[in-house]
Amino acid sequence: MLTMLAESPALYMSAIFILSLLVGSFLNVVIYRLPVMMKNDWQDQIDYHVNGPEHVVSRPPFNLVKPDSTCPKCSHKIRAWENIPVLSWLFLRGKCSQCKTSISIRYPAVELTTALLSTLVAYQLGFGLFGFSFVLCTWLLVAMTFIDLDEMLLPDVLTLSMLWIGLLVAAHEPTVNTTDAIVGGALGYLSLFSVYWGFKLLTGKEGMGHGDFKLLAAIGVWTGWQHLPIVILLSSVVGAIIGIALMLSKNKGRDYSIPFGPYLAVAGFITVLYGQNIADWYISSL
Fold first, then answer.
1. Does residue 85 have a cis peptide bond before it, meaning omega lies within 30 degrees of 0?
2. Measured between alpha carbons, how far is 105 from 274 in angstroms, rounded to an integer?
3. Fewest CB within a 10 Å sphere: which of 19, 78, 132, 251?
4. DSSP states of 203-246 as a string?
5. pTM of the full predicted structure?
6. pLDDT digits over 11-41, tens only?
7. Secondary structure of the chain in HEC code, one letter for each residue
């Protein structure tokens, strides 16, 4: 099977597309449940240390597996045929099969986005350890993007997973050597860490979350230190444009908070795939 996938790019991309559709369905669960799991854990820790272990609330199981997915309106248990990526949403016309409550278009959008981006990675990077490993990280980036948009959180389990996968790949693949990956991770973290503290010393306010440091560190491992300026420039420009647009459209002041993680994720994704092309274009344009 691996030989067939290696010899047939079309078959490989088709397999990645179908697999990523299925993963996208699971990412919808991760995007909703992981922040809730984190908040429950934080509350348990507070209760334990402030009030004692006897005051920790005993909750029903809530994780990425349990409870089963249900309609939030009528509690109808989602059956297997109702959970086929994209197709079930189209077949049900975007409504619950029982109470006819609308199902957000975001669910199939996450599934399709995951599949399309992963297929682009497969096309651009080809069959191999580096390419498939970055498909895995693309799934992580999709989850981080939507969690940050919803909750302004970047879970360590996602950012650090991307970082460690990148370091392991760098140890075995010549695409980004180990030294460049380690330096890229360190500089990625320290660059935003320095901006954070500089802004805090000048204004007394926190300009970004620590999750942003870890995400840029993970991206730096994948791009190498040489392409970090591209990531920072792309994310800053896009973030500034969208941030200003949001402030103007929603009549928000300068204190209006926007998540920076999605812009880092988009910039990192583009740079891993096209960073060298962007650098070559820039140098030639000089």
1. no
2. 30
3. 251
4. HSS--S-HHHHHHHHHHHHHH-GGGHHHHHHHHHHHHHHHHHHH
5. 0.90
6. 999 999 999 999 999 999 999 999 999 998 8
7. CHHHHHHCHHHHHHHHHHHHHHHHHHHHHHHHHHHHHHHHHHHHHHHHHHHCHHHCCCCCCCCCCCCCCECCCCCCECCHHHHCCCHHHHHCCCECCCCCCECCCHHHHHHHHHHHHHHHHHHHHCCCHHHHHHHHHHHHHHHHHHHHHHHCCCCHHHHHHHHHHHHHHHCCCCCCCHHHHHHHHHHHHHHHHHHHHHHHHHHCCCCCCHHHHHHHHHHHHHHCHHHHHHHHHHHHHHHHHHHHHHHHHCCCCCCCCCCCHHHHHHHHHHHHHHHHHHHHHHHHHC
Which one-letter amino acid corresponds to residue 189?
Y
pLDDT score, position 58: 81
pLDDT digits (tens, 9 = 90+) for 229-271: 999 999 888 877 777 776 666 665 555 677 888 999 999 999 9
Query: Cα–Cα distance between 46 and 284 in angstroms, integer?
Result: 56
Give dist(CA 21, CA 18) in Å, integer: 5
With pLDDT > 90 as the criterion, what percentage of the chain qualifies? 49
Classify 72 as helix, strand or coil: coil
pLDDT at 79 over 80: yes
